[in-house]
Amino acid sequence: MIVVTGATGNVGRPLVRALVAAGEQVTAVSRHSPRESAAGVRHHQADLAEPQTLKPALDGAETLFLLTSGDFMAAGGDLGQVLDVVRASGVRRVVLLSSLGVSTGDHPSEMEDAVRQSGLGWTMLRPGGFHSNTLQWAGAVRAGRTVAAPFGDVALPTVDPDDIAEAAAVVLRDASHAGRVHELTGPAPVSPRQQAAAIGGALGEPVRFVEQTRAEARAEMARFMPEPVADATLAMLGAPSDGLLRVRPDVERLLGRPPRSFAEWAARNAAAFR
After folding, report:
1. Does 8 have pLDDT greater than 80?
2. Could you give the 3-state DSSP secondary structure of residue 63?
3. According to a count of CB atoms within 10 Å of the terminal CB, is the N or C end of the chain lower?
4. pLDDT tens digits for 164-214?
5. Whole-angstrom distance, CA of residue 82 vs CA of residue 272
6. How far apart are CA 246 and CA 237, in angstroms?
7. What is the CA radius of gyration of the chain?
8. Which DSSP letter does residue 55 get?
9. What is the 3-state secondary structure (H, E, C) of 181-195?
């Protein structure tokens, strides 16, 4: 059996669907009850910040997809305690959703270090930014066909969360990926200005791009993240390292097809912006 944490999120939902379609037994774990659940999927409500709540979901599981949220870190979550519960439950391997920033040194490696030191088998998935991060613009696009963001012409190879989910499904079902790191990006770098244009293309009408100053972006970000995190994020987005700019081949290697572009994602999710 495979246990999927974060099962109601942008990666977790399509991952559960992909695993069920492949005939796997799945337990979907989330902090809140899902609005809908795939047929044949067992759901368990748990909070990783309280590791013992995860224990019942792990009964009979061999592999765990581990996704930690910003809320987990903000609550002072201890991944070591989570992994102690996982190991004691008999799980053999953890697939961790990490970050491409670990590869480039832009993000800390503490989460990966904890998994490597846990005594469990492991596989690391390191995606770049998600195409779906642009859903934060949906309200402004619906209200006024406008997108406001900083660094309008800085292009990064963002990735479709459905591609991350499909890659995770492959890795979870194949133990030969143990001890490996997969870096996941989209097919080409895309800038915020180009993303706004692609959303407009999906809607069939123009979406205007307004470039924010760093101060404007910082003030907006500070409403939902700690100021040091906002500063670090803006520094990374404004002057990304060469490693963050480079397209990786791992999605195509894992899935046997090219990764989906931002324009494809926007066309599939146009309803969110209407």
Report:
1. yes
2. strand
3. C
4. 999 999 999 999 999 999 999 999 999 999 999 999 999 999 999 999 999
5. 35
6. 14
7. 19
8. G
9. EEEECCCCCECHHHH
* pLDDT per position as a tens digit, 37-87: 777 899 999 999 999 999 999 999 999 999 998 778 777 789 999 999 999
Q: What residues contact 156, with CB distance under 8 A and at least 6 apart?
A: 128, 129, 189, 190, 191, 237, 240, 244, 245
Angstrom distance (rounded) from CA 33 to CA 52: 18
245: confidence class by pLDDT, cuts 50, 70, 90 = very high
> What sign results for the dihedral spanned by CA atoms 220, 221, 223, 229?
negative
Please tell me the predicted confidence (pLDDT) of residue 194.
98
| Two structure tokens written together for 95 | 């697939």
Cα 139 to chain centroid, rounded: 21
Q: Which residues contact 176 (CB under 8 A, 6 or more apart)?
A: none
Tokens of 132: 């779906």
The dihedral built from the CA positions of residue 240, 140, 184 and 261, taken in this order, carries a sign that is negative
| Nearest in space to 220 (alpha carbons), one of 209, 234, 235, 208 | 234
Looking at the DSSP bridge assignments, the partners of residue 182 are 125
**Strand order through the sheet with 26-30:** 42-45, 26-30, 2-4, 63-66, 93-97, 121-127, 181-184
Secondary structure (DSSP) of 71-140:
HHHHTT--HHHHHHHHHHTT--EEEEE--HHHHHTSS--HHHHHHHTTSSEEEEEEE--BGGGGGGGHHH
SS3 for 218-235 is: HHHHCCCCCHHHHHHHHH
